[in-house]
């Protein structure tokens, strides 16, 4: 096996050479130790992926985790690596996913640090990587893990109107985030294993969130809805949270374009979902900054403390680009996506002398309720931690780049 160790050799040259000489056993750790640079003439999708491999040879190490864990953010990252592998056929990306899969699903199919009875919709998201892992490896552990997550959805508590609670500890609440966490897995599973029998129920999740969180004035969706209207953050008349958070709307839009991959063209709900995508796209486009980016609090512009946020911007770019590529959205949204991605690369990406790429201005996390209490106020959203290379900003960057490279 040939290995290029020389300082300043392009990491991509290393990969190509290894592919010719038998890449099947190469480990991400060997890539990290090569001291090679990331070639600046590569596509942005691979520049980011190779930078991640360089920093974190094992996927569970992203976000400075000290040990493996089943995690929705890492599931998002693995989804982006899967799409990159499908495009490039470079086995290093498949290997990265496989090593993560083996670290969080044991040989009996048990998922690390997962408890079905917690009924946390976030826990379903990483299950999306299992479909292709199972297809490639034929390892039954991944089928068992998928079946476990499907069982969660069968008994997951719901609002009286049929929407999945975000978590058991957040009763009667639907969050926009939860649409991405649950519905793409649900849609693919029911299509591949159940002949699509529950696609109506998948669509119901979007119908409920659209019905209850839509702000008719702006066309945007509020971050969450409390059917019980008991939470301090909930509007006593509508049950909605008080503000628009770009990443939450981004989760919703990504969920729409991804679920549509599994919604047959003749399915009666398909047209409705495409309509939802067009509605929210019109609204989101109105708030795109001249830089091409979007603000943390979507409708508040350059109000004091607000900032141009990476992950939400990337998610909007991905949804616009994929929507236009698939014919769900008018072609003008591809132009808006290009403008957005240019803004990301010019204003939010930094590049080290050796070519390593970083994404800045990523909101680390945001939610509602809990301890300490998160009230959903404008001040709350702008004061959450802002990080560099947070996983929320890594996966969507790769996904957005891939759509624009088509």
UniProtKB/TrEMBL annotation:
Coiled coil: none annotated. The keyword Hydrolase applies. It comes from the Bacteria. GO terms for molecular function: hydrolase activity. Pfam families: Glyco_hydro_88 (PF07470). SUPFAM superfamilies: Six-hairpin glycosidases. Keywords: Hydrolase. This is Glycosyl hydrolase family 88. The lineage of its organism: Bacteria, Pseudomonadati, Bacteroidota, Flavobacteriia, Flavobacteriales.
């Amino acid at each position: 096996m040939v290995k290029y160790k020389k300082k300043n050799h392009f990491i991509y040259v290393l990969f190509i050479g290894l592919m010719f000489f038998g890449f099947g056993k190469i480990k991400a750790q060997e890539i990290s130790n090569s001291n090679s640079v990331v070639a600046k003439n590569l596509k942005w999708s691979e520049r980011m992926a190779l930078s991640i491999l360089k920093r974190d040879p094992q996927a569970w190490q992203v976000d400075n985790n000290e040990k493996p864990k089943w995690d929705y953010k890492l599931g998002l990252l693995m989804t982006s690596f899967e799409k990159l592998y499908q495009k490039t056929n470079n086995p290093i990306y498949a290997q990265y996913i496989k090593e993560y899969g083996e670290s969080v699903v044991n040989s009996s199919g048990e998922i690390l640090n997962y408890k079905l009875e917690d009924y946390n919709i976030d826990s379903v998201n990483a299950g999306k990587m299992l479909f292709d892992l199972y297809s490639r490896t034929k390892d039954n552990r991944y089928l068992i893990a998928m079946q476990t997550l499907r069982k969660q959805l069968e008994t997951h508590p719901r609002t009286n109107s049929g929407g999945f609670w975000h978590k058991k500890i957040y009763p009667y609440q639907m969050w926009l985030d939860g649409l991405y966490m649950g519905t793409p897995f649900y849609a693919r599973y029911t299509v591949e294993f159940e002949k699509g029998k529950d696609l109506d129920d998948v669509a119901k999740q979007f119908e409920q969130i659209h019905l209850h969180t839509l702000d008719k004035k702006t066309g945007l969706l509020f971050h969450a809805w409390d059917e019980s209207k008991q939470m301090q953050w909930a509007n006593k008349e509508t049950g909605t949270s008080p503000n628009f958070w770009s990443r939450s709307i981004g989760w919703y839009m990504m969920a729409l374009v991804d679920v549509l991959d599994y919604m047959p063209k003749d399915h009666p709900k398909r047209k409705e979902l495409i309509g939802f995508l067009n509605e929210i796209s019109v609204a989101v486009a109105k708030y795109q900054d001249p830089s091409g980016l979007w603000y943390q609090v979507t409708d508040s512009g350059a109000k004091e403390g607000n900032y141009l946020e990476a992950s939400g911007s990337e998610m909007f770019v991905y949804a616009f680009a994929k929507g236009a590529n698939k014919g769900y959205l008018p072609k003008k949204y591809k132009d808006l996506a290009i403008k957005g991605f240019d803004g990301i690369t010019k204003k939010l990406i930094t590049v080290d002398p050796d070519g390593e790429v970083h994404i800045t201005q990523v909101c680390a996390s945001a939610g509602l309720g809990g301890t300490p209490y998160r009230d959903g106020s404008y001040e709350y959203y702008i004061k959450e931690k802002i990080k560099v290379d947070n996983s929320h900003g890594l996966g969507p960057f790769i996904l957005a780049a891939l759509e624009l490279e088509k």
